[in-house]
Amino acid sequence: MSGADLPAWAAWLVVALAIAGAGVSLTGALGLVRLRTFYERVHAPTLGATLGMALILTSSMVLLSLLEGRLVLRDALIGVFLTITTPVTLLLLARAAAQRDRHEGNPGAPPEI
Amino acid sequence: MSRILRPFLPYPLLSVGLAGTWLLLNAPLSPGSAVLALLVGLTVPAVMRALRPPAVRVRAPGTLARLLVVVLYDMVRSNIDVGRIILGLRRGTRRTGFVAIPLDLREPFGLAVLAIILTATPGTLWVRYDSGTGRLLLHVLDYTDGDEWVRRVKDRYERPLMQIFGRGNSA
Amino acid sequence: MSATTVLDWGLGLAQGMLVLAMALAAWRMLRGPRAQDRILGLDTLYLNGMLAIVVHGMRTGSGLYFEAALILGMIGFTATVALAKFLMQGEVIQ
């Protein structure tokens, strides 16, 4: 375990950021269980992919920067990567679901544009 | 960009992005990794030229910065909104529904950024876009009658994006 | 409380919350009811697993877990895109 020479405020800051991020992600995953229709549920994981991810990565960057005594921004790359990929996955998934629903004539199918 | 530089830097944004990624991956900064980052930034875009991606020109950097702030604010706010909906903290009845938005934005890169923005703000989901009619179908978690969503997307995001990736002389 | 204790307990709690999120995503993946729900569950599982690895890397204080998290994110992206593509073209006549 690391962080023996860290000041207390830094430890609390890192922990607060990480727990807040994990809480946002957990809320998103809970939405996956609680929301009733598929189109509502697709919204849920974006919580973890946006604010949850940002908080946890910030926490990690703060901790690593303090431990190594220099600015460590490497984790931001994960953030950039996720920001670019999440729209693609959700867009494809929504389109696949819309296509299936319309093909089967389900009542919840999206309207024709 | 001047004509002399063009053969070496066909996609300056890509070059900067690649070099920056390389430096981030190889931190701490050393002379060796800086030279390699320069090499990567100069050579890899030349390979990309074979794929002929359309060049992107960013205009109005001030608008870009303002848009970034707006999106960050909206991201946090809509995260809280959707979190409250999931946790059942919101009173009253809630409806979901599809909203069709007629877009004037036609720039592929601008549309891609719009897709990223709409995904980054939970509560809106890009379902489909018809490039022929320019109509975008969104699914919104908090549906309201009228054109509130249409105005929100058009005013907050589409107009700045059209200024940034303006059509016309983007050769 | 020393900084080490705070970090150990706090990051452990964050890890536990992410594991719970993974469990909820796995529940949706197993439960369905339709294929798109399962893929959505898998995507969320990957996402939270990646975040859990980042937090684990913070607990150990080493930067080695960064690569693992990045690779897991890439695999999750590829898997979800491939599955969604299959859903569009494998079942529905085009």
Automatic annotation (TrEMBL), chain A:
Species for this entry: Methylobacterium goesingense
Keyword Nucleus tagged: no
PANTHER family in UniProt: ANTIPORTER SUBUNIT MNHG2-RELATED (PTHR34703)
Keywords: Membrane, Transmembrane, Transmembrane helix
InterPro entries: PhaG_MnhG_YufB
One Pfam family matching this protein: PhaG_MnhG_YufB
Membrane-spanning segments: 6-32, 44-64, 76-94
NCBIfam families linked to this entry: CPA3_mnhG_phaG (TIGR01300)
Transmembrane keyword on record: yes
Protein name: Multicomponent K+:H+ antiporter subunit G
Automatic annotation (TrEMBL), chain C:
Annotated membrane topology: Multi-pass membrane protein
Places the protein is found: Cell membrane
ATP-binding among keywords: no
Coiled coil (UniProt feature): none
InterPro entries xrefs: MrpF/PhaF-like
Protein's UniProt keywords contain Transferase: no
TM spans (from-to): 6-27, 39-58, 64-88
Pfam families: MrpF_PhaF
Keywords: Antiport, Cell membrane, Ion transport, Membrane, Transmembrane, Transmembrane helix, Transport
Source species, domain of life: Bacteria
Family label: Belongs to the CPA3 antiporters (TC 2.A.63) subunit F family.
Protein name: Multicomponent K+:H+ antiporter subunit F
Organism listed in the record: Methylobacterium goesingense
